[in-house]
């Protein structure tokens, strides 16, 4: 007498090929139904339209614009902006020095090799494309000038033209950053 070991249904399915096919097809059917009922992704996740959805483009006319702006004003009643973003009145900000130096070096075809920054002074070691080294020292001023910059390029051979190019580029970058709006500290 032969003894069957294991689960009685499994053993019966292995003996009957039609029953195993039915079980396989049932499992496949359940999986496909579960997949069809899957939740569609949010539009913000997929950036695609849901089937049958038409893109909505709406331009407000003057009356509708007025209605929307009035609703926004009502929500903002009693709230006043304390510090609005604005360009710097003096034209430059001390906080822009580190980024302005990097961009100025790029404009003058130079690179910052090292830097030492403190509250009132920043010293940068500079290297030119001609492999000349130099220093750029930017010191904070307490008057309308905001900063004072000194550059020396070339230790063995003085390169005043390269130093002037770097200082001009720094001045241009500081003024460009000063025109950008920033919230006060």
Q: Care to describe what's here?
A:
The protein is of the alpha+beta class. The protein has helices at residues 8-15, 17-36, 43-46, 62-76, 97-107, 160-179, and strands at residues 110-117, 121-128, 133-140, 147-153. It has a 4-stranded antiparallel beta sheet with strand order 1-2-3-4. Strand 3 and strand 4 form a beta hairpin. The longest helix has 20 residues, at 17-36. The chain is flat. The model has no long low-confidence stretch (mean pLDDT 77).
- Biggest sheet strand line-up: 1-2-3-4
Distance between the amino and carboxyl termini: 91 Å
Residue runs with pLDDT of under 50 for 5 or more positions: none
Order of helices and strands: HHHHHEEEEH
Overall form: flat
**How many β strands by DSSP?**
4
Average pLDDT over all residues: 77
Estimated structural class: alpha+beta
Residues in helices, as a percent range:
40-55%
Main sheet: strands, sense, barrel: 4 strands, antiparallel
How many alpha or pi helices?
6
Radius of gyration computed on alpha carbons? 35 Å
Q: Please report which band the strand proportion falls in: under 5%, 5-15%, 15-25%, 25-35%, 35-45% or over 45%.
A: 15-25%
